Amino acid sequence: MKTQIFKKRIQATLLALLISSSMSTLSHAQPVDQVIAVVGDSAILKSDLDLSIAEAEQRAKLQNKAIPSYHQLAVQMLDQLILQNAQLEQVKRFGLQVNEQELNDAVMRIARQSGESNLMNYQQKLDAMAPGTYEILRNRVAQQLLIQQLSQQQVMSRIRISDQDIDNFLKSPEGQAVTGNQVQVIHLRISGTAPAAELKQTATQVRAALNQSNDIQAIQNQFKTANITVEGNDMGLRSISSMPAELAARVSSLKTNQTTDLIQVQDGIHILKLLDRKQSAQQVLVPQFKTQHILIKTSEVVTPENAKQMIDSIYNRLQAGSDFNTLAATYSNDPGSAADGGNLGWVSPGMMVPEFDQIMQDIPVGQISQPFQTQFGWHILRVNEQRQQDMTRENQRNMARQVLGERQFDSEVDSWLRELRANTYIEIRDPSLDPKKQNGQAQ
After folding, report:
1. Single pTM value for the model
2. What domains can you pick out in the chain, each with its CATH number?
């Protein structure tokens, strides 16, 4: 599962880290050829550590925070560098590559924070401080993007959310609030100066009566006494999130016309009866298109020119009246749909590549598109029907999955990083910076 929330969180962390760094420390670090630590196949130099310490001090000053001692900062920054290098070792192992457009966008966001509107001006500004500064920054941003990519792959694969987890969440007060559930509830409260046992006995009788009737006034009149008060009302249709937590937790699991058990709280004994449950959130309607297509791919024997000629020939035959199903079954290179006359079933926007999506949404129902190209080859498509599909339930489940996934994310990141460090060869060559050696333990 790869959600936008996770991606934005990592991107925000990356941007904050880079913006808060001092460009002057970035450009004026002097190389010192002394290895402080070895992480896998890479080395951490003293100059790397000095730069990290300088940046940490700068961030603390900008945030008006107390600056730890040099030794404390050195230990903290070395730990961060070790973890970063361990992740970069994994990046190399998995052969991850940075996307140039994402890299340009990330650097551009930092440039805007510095008041620059384009990368060329930003590069000139940085390199005026010291030649090569822009390249250093760009390389660091690239490293962070690769670490982001790695963490997304590794952490997302560890998150497990079952259908039962989603069902349980949607029944909870938080889940009801997230999805906008509203309930209509009768609320009765039994209180007074009578002994606790007598109050509980009366509350049990009230609950039995409420199971049989919704007549609040009659129940009140039947069970109230000089030292026992029975108060009740129909709460109307209201959001579960607006109810007291003790009561909301009980209502969320009720079925219509069910009552809760006795709820003993400080101000008395409460009983709730669910009369109705509704979705207050607006219906989520998604356009869907019943689509079929013909795909011609290039291959070792089909050149791009041949593929274009073939798709044009098929288009001309369709225009002349040939059967779409027959031509798709005969010529289409899409094994998943060719045998069924090119039928893709109901397709929602976002399921296909952008070029296909756009043609699908633009073409009138019943018409055949002109040939168009995507990363998969040349296509002709026809939209046979269009509908608005109610995706409210699916949307609610996706929202629940996202909330549950975010809950797991932080703990899974921590767990993954601990495992990564434990499984990476690490040698700290400066004993004063090694917590284990400082504590008298063997490395």
Report:
1. 0.49
2. 1-179+401-443 (1.10.4030.10), 181-279 (3.10.50.40), 285-390 (3.10.50.40)
